[in-house]
Amino acid sequence: MSGNALTVSGLTKKYEAFTLSDISFEVPKGTIAGLIGENGAGKSTTLNAVLGLIHRDKGEISVLGSPVEELQPEVRENIGVVFDGTNFSEELTPGKLNRVLRGIYCSWDEEYFFALLKKLSLPAAKKIRSFSKGMKAKLSIAVAFAHHPGLLILDEATSGLDPVVRDDILDMFLDFVQDEENSILVSSHITGDLEKIADYIIFIHEGRLIFSKPKDELLESYGIVKCGTAQFEMIDKQEIIACRKLDYEWQVLVADRNSARKKYPKAMVIPASIDEIMLLYVKGENQ
Fold it and tell me: How far apart are CA 40 and CA 36, in angstroms?
């Protein structure tokens, strides 16, 4: 394993009522990066820029070693994409869709596609318009896998799936990167999924990058200090990433919970989940 599957540097995109500003992150080969943020934070804009679907105002994007604006057809074929919903004709069946896609992708694997349909309990002979939202999501995932891409770009790919199927899909994602060459960038509101599979977490809030960090660093080091006002006043303000005043306590996000336990023994210090980290950043106050 060497190099990055994806490099984003200084990405900026301005709209009339929203600006995505100076976004930079990397997705090393053989890893899964989770993209998080509230609705409207800029996640979909980032993914669209990575795929070359929108014009960017500033910044550079390299996908599988090539600038995104110079991607050759063979490189584009090496990118698998799953958006929330489906872009396939709903009058097709998966079987007919297979015939269409084998004429589009040089690397299309018909045998693997039908094996995935069986694995995901999808009928090959029913029209897509009869599928539920979850079935359509599973079909999109099967299509993305069936042309053997080196990079998967996923936007809410597991939304609408029941917990059992979602767990199976997550295992597929983990298997996909086991060769240390394949990579995934996945945007998801289900942060528990990212805690299971992601190597890195990229957090965008109001169009700005809050952090891009290894997931283990977040889960093993970050913590929440729960305390009263008197104890809150004693906390070194330089250690506070974000804080929130509730009716009965302060919640304080810190980057080193073990240090906080030693310095503030009368306060309760607990591990912080990705969901809680995001919530405190979005709803809390920055010092």
Answer: 11
